[in-house]
Write a structure and sequence with these properties.
Oligomer: single chain
Distance between the termini: 105 Å
Low-confidence stretches: none
Number of helices: 7
Largest sheet: none
Length: 185
């Protein structure tokens, strides 16, 4: 008769040895997860705070005056380089920079600013093109330009219409500038 060997008894301490080796790694993973969550949470807080500040700034008395002046200059301008107050362009350039740094989300930009971005870009493009040519520097207001493109794409997607249809017409831009030029501080 063949002798059957008995299976080795599991060592009573093998579970504990396993636990000794795995628990520190589980602790590291838990700490890493907590730090990651905390980092994401703080990024979201920064996004919300930035959004609130940009919304307040855009509707501030000073910015409303700048928007009124800028729109008025654009309506009267015969030469695109005659624009003198570029605070509106700087605002949108800053907004684009914050977007690029992930300090403000696209949904907020779209819901609060896309209408203005799309119209101000169309009205400002001749000035920007002239400025780039005059300064021999194509980097002026590229953030604003890219922001406009992103907003038009989002608008096209949400409205289920081609880009050419959602892009504001010259008449829409003129009407918009007239409204902005009549803003009260």
């Amino acid at each position: 008769m063949a002798e059957h060997s008995k299976p080795d008894k599991p060592c009573a301490f093998s579970f504990w040895r396993f636990a000794e080796r795995i628990l520190p790694w589980l602790g590291v993973l838990a700490a890493f997860a907590a730090v990651t969550y905390q980092h994401q949470d703080s990024k979201e807080i920064v996004r919300v705070q930035t959004a609130i500040e940009m919304i307040k700034l855009f509707d501030s008395t000073e910015m409303r005056r700048a928007r009124r002046r800028f729109a008025g200059e654009q309506l009267r301008a015969k030469d695109p380089t005659s624009i003198t107050d570029t605070r509106v362009l700087e605002f949108f350039e800053t907004l684009a920079s914050y977007r690029e740094q992930d300090r403000i989300d696209d949904a907020t930009i779209y819901s609060k600013f896309s209408y203005y971005i799309e119209r101000y870009w169309v009205s400002s493009e001749p000035f920007v093109v002239a400025l780039r040519k005059e300064q021999e520097d194509n980097s002026f207001y590229t953030g604003f330009e890219e922001l406009n493109t992103a907003m038009l794409k989002e608008d096209s997607k949400k409205r289920n219409k081609p880009l050419l249809i959602v892009k504001p017409t010259a008449d829409e831009v003129k009407e918009f500038l007239q409204i902005e030029a009549a803003l009260t501080p």
